[in-house]
Amino acid sequence: MGRSGRGRRWNATAGLAALFALAGCGGGEGVAEGATVSVYAVAPSCAGAKRVLARHGARSGEVRVRLVCVGDSESGRVWTLAAVGANARRASEDSSTVAYVADRDPTAARFSRPILESAGIAQLSPGPSGAAAMTKILAAIGEADTSGSIRESVNESLPSG
């Protein structure tokens, strides 16, 4: 086999190894002590979610929690399907994501739901500020069974909305 064949095989092997290493929070191997999980939130919900997360020291039990604010899918008062889809896809492609705080507009949230459900990610309604959603998410992370998939455990314990 020529050099390029060996290089491709090595790249594929290295890529798979990296994928398995990143899958610790979303996969079935359990959560390592001190692991970090991500919660994605649409921009208007981020301020309230940040306040709640700061009060908890960016932790829930032994798990560190990272808030990722994604762009507001609203341009003026009209949201776009492209922006809603892009936000949900970004969250679903992150192996550490355990929950998503959706758009306030129920129709926009309805369009992001299938993308997130296919990845096993819980979607919550932001409420008035995002704080209520983050409080529920932190409680679900704290109660999650960390011997398996924390994403799955959080998804099962949170009401979809």
Write the layout of secondary structure elements.
Layout: H1 3-22, E1 36-42, H2 43-55, E2 59-60, E3 63-70, E4 74-75, E5 78-79, H3 81-93, E6 97-101, H4 106-118, E7 122-124, H5 131-143, H6 150-157
Parallel strand pairs: 1-3, 1-6, 6-7
Antiparallel strand pairs: 2-3, 4-5
Total number of strands: 7
Please state the overall shape, judged from the principal axes of the Cα atoms: globular
Mean pLDDT: 79
Number of domains: 1
CATH class, anyone? Alpha Beta
Largest sheet: 5 strands, mixed
Assess the beta-strand content as a share of residues: 15-25%
**CA-based gyration radius:** 17 Å
CATH topology: the name is: Rossmann fold
First CA to last CA: what distance? Answer: 53 Å
Secondary structure tally, helices: 6
Q: What would CATH call the architecture?
A: 3-Layer(aba) Sandwich
Helix and strand composition category: alpha/beta
Q: From N to C, what is the helix and strand string?
A: HEHEEEEHEHEHH
| Low-confidence regions | 6-29
Query: What's the CATH H-level homologous superfamily?
Result: Response regulator
Describe this structure in words.
Mean pLDDT is 79; it is low at 6-29. The chain has helices at residues 3-22, 43-55, 81-93, 106-118, 131-143, 150-157, and strands spanning 36-42, 59-60, 63-70, 74-75, 78-79, 97-101, 122-124. The protein is built from six helices and seven strands; from the N terminus they run αβαββββαβαβαα. The chain starts with a helix and ends with a helix. α2 crosses α5 (131-143), α3 (81-93) runs parallel beside α4 and α5 crosses α6 (150-157). The chain is α/β, with parallel strands linked by helices. β6, α4 and β7 (122-124) form a beta-alpha-beta unit. The protein has a single domain, classed as Rossmann fold (3-Layer(aba) Sandwich), CATH 3.40.50.2300. The strands form two sheets. It has a five-stranded mixed beta sheet. A two-stranded antiparallel sheet has the order 4-5. The chain is 50% helix and 18% strand. The chain is globular.
